[in-house]
């Protein structure tokens, strides 16, 4: 039924890029399967045409292929439609599938791009370039398990050129295989000690693993080679608190002076300089450079508060629709009749900079909880199940169609296949991707055994924490303007209040200020929510050698500290743009909404 719907949707102008029925079917049935698992006798076989259409003439095939290549940079969606025309016409070659994979990857649909790459490998052999493409696809899809298998396959293809080693090292670092990443980076730096990017990557790997002194050394080596490396300067500032007699002001200002003041490099350096001024207690200058960086970045980021309001409103309507309510009830009934074995997911979510990493570290120090980091793959499996082939607006597109039949059990299985640890027999594994809050209702319906911890913090600390954090490009577009940040906060609060009305027994709200005031009480409360006994190791989280891969990677290496509570007050009326939005919406700057309907005054 879904395949028929996909074919129909491909003719709908506003439906985005949707996959051909044949490719969609293969992608769904082989989710998580890698080329290393394909029997050798399959690799040389011809793949039948997707829909049985008559084969294209050679002239037509070449013409369409030229058109697809020509459109790749200017209009990737049109290029993908042309590739689909080729595939549906029987022109299933390694070259065509490789192009499809690259297009899907550019449109942000990694899982199905990986399937196209596998098809290319079947027909063209496991060439190094195709294997690297497959690795990139899995990384984009947050699909760590098959990415790890592809890395193993690539490592068996020695000797490898330096470019391939760099790609494999990056992939290994992304999935926390730091031993592989460090070995490859060491080999690369031994051959070329002037490669700034490799010095930065080695430093970041050391920083993730808590080796701050080694990380700082690597960043300084990068800056010595390239004084205008804004990224090295940013990471150097982040590796520890900057002191009056020992700081990196000179290095950052040198980088800023050398780059285009309208460039992303300038923005990167500005945020580094703001962090350094903040460490030194110079809040006026800190705010000035944070704002200077944000002002350059804001026009580059497509964002609209009105669009967010509409998207969240449509999301709420989806979960009020009788079709969804019926599907959810059926899924819950089946789960209760036959509960699924194995560890269940614990989603730690909310706005960034609200203590989610701290809580994840503390909770996963329990022997029955395994941290999987920020997975980000639930949205990916939504795309897989619906055959979405990439592009903007998937969230709005999905929730605008409540009547569409979604197999919630299949959605849950796809997520579990991608996310659950293979070597863990405990009770829970965590996924702390903050933006999972946008899909909480669907997650709850697809995974009836899942639980949710919602981290909250003083509104102004939350808003300013987002504003002064330079996130990975492409994420959190609201964060480059204080007023928009506050408006987003309002919408997020309304969305979370809706989820809590739907599933109050499955969502636990935990305040950052409460955790730092009495960590033992709050962690015990989380463990009680999970049905777990107290373990003292949860308070020794900072001694864990597990890697950290979030903006808090340096802070959570320290014991609990209270200096971040009420941090926004140090900036006074500089933050009035955000404060006025909260006041207009009836939110006291020293209060934070609680699930019980009351309010708790923050210090």
Shape: globular
Q: Going across the major beta sheet, what is the strand order? A: 2-3-1-4-5
- As a whole number of angstroms, the C-alpha radius of gyration is 25 Å
Distance between the termini: 56 Å
Low-confidence stretches: 1-17, 26-53, 550-554, 591-603
Number of DSSP E strands:
7
Helical proportion, percent range: 55-70%
Summarize the structure.
The chain is mainly α and 603 residues long. The protein contains 28 helices and seven strands.
Description:
The longest helix is centred in the C-terminal third of the chain and has 21 residues. The protein starts with a helix and ends with a strand. It is globular. The strands form 2 sheets. It has a 5-stranded parallel beta sheet with strand order 2-3-1-4-5, with helices on both faces. The chain is 55% helix and 5% strand.
List keywords for this structure.
single chain; mainly alpha; two-stranded antiparallel ribbon; 28 helices; 7 strands; globular; disordered N terminus
Structural topology:
Elements: H1 2-9, H2 21-29, H3 58-71, H4 76-88, H5 94-106, H6 110-124, H7 128-140, H8 144-155, H9 162-174, H10 178-191, H11 196-208, H12 212-225, H13 230-238, H14 249-258, H15 264-279, H16 283-297, H17 305-320, H18 322-337, E1 344-350, H19 356-363, E2 369-371, H20 378-386, H21 394-399, H22 408-419, E3 428-431, H23 440-446, E4 451-456, H24 459-467, H25 482-502, E5 507-511, H26 512-517, H27 519-530, H28 576-584, E6 591-593, E7 599-601
Parallel strand pairs: 1-3, 1-4, 2-3, 4-5
Antiparallel strand pairs: 6-7
